[in-house]
């Protein structure tokens, strides 16, 4: 009997120096919040979720799958990447059970939009997503508002 497999993913992006850069997090736009720097839309929650499902399936990580400098994915949304990585994981013979994501940062305030964000991520993934958030009590790069991080776990099983 083959047991289900867990995976883990982490992502960090720096807060943009451009105050007009949109904040994309957990497949949602967060109006009035300065965004994160990155080759794509810098959605740390979506990227961590991608890495978690790939990890669970033994398919390395986002950077290995698409290459961080692949022009086809420049400016790709987190939702698009999550949909594509989920497609690849399923194509490789896996069922995705669920993904849990924790955002680590001083902003944005996830709580008021948690259910909306879970629904947006679940729609992109095609499986259940639970989202939580924590601060680091003012400590470290997240506490200094220099960046936002996310950690994710995933469960997959053989189809
Ligand atoms: Zn990323």
What does this structure look like?
This protein has 159 residues and is α+β, with helices and mostly antiparallel strands. The chain is 30% helix and 32% strand. α3 (78-91) packs across α4. Zinc ion binds next to β1 and α1.
Q: Could you tell me which ligands this complex binds, including any ions or cofactors?
A: zinc ion
CATH architecture: 2-Layer Sandwich
Terminal Cα separation, in Å? 13 Å
> Uncertain regions: pLDDT < 50 for 5+ in a row?
none
Mean pLDDT: 96
If strands are numbered along the chain, what order do they take across the biggest sheet? Answer: 1-6-4-5
Task: Output the keywords.
159 residues, binds zinc ion, alpha+beta, 6 strands, 5 helices, 60s Ribosomal Protein L30, Chain: A, two-stranded antiparallel sheet
Topology:
Layout: E1 5-14, E2 22-25, E3 28-34, H1 44-56, H2 62-66, H3 78-91, E4 94-104, H4 114-125, E5 128-134, H5 140-143, E6 147-158
Parallel strand pairs: 4-5
Antiparallel strand pairs: 1-6, 2-3, 4-6
Helix pairs in contact: 1-3, 3-4
This protein binds zinc ion (ZN).
Please sum up the structure shown:
The chain is α+β, with helices and mostly antiparallel strands and 159 residues long. Helices cover 30% and strands 32% of the residues. The longest helix is centred in the middle third of the chain and has 14 residues, at 78-91.
């Amino acid at each position: 009997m083959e047991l289900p497999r867990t995976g883990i993913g982490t992502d960090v992006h720096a807060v943009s120096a451009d105050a007009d850069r949109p904040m994309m997090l957990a497949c949602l736009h967060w109006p009035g919040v300065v965004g994160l720097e990155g080759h794509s839309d810098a959605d740390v929650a979506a990227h961590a979720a991608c890495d978690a499902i790939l990890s669970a399936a033994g398919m390395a990580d986002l950077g290995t799958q698409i290459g961080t400098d692949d022009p086809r994915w420049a400016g790709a949304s987190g939702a698009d990447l999550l949909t594509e990585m989920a497609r690849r994981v399923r194509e490789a013979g896996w069922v995705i059970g669920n993904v849990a994501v924790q955002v680590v940062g001083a902003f944005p305030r996830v709580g008021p939009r948690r259910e909306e964000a879970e629904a947006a991520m679940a729609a992109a993934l095609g499986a259940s997503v639970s989202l939580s958030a924590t601060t680091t009590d003012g400590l470290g790069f997240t506490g200094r508002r220099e960046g936002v991080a996310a950690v994710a776990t995933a469960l997959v099983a053989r189809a």
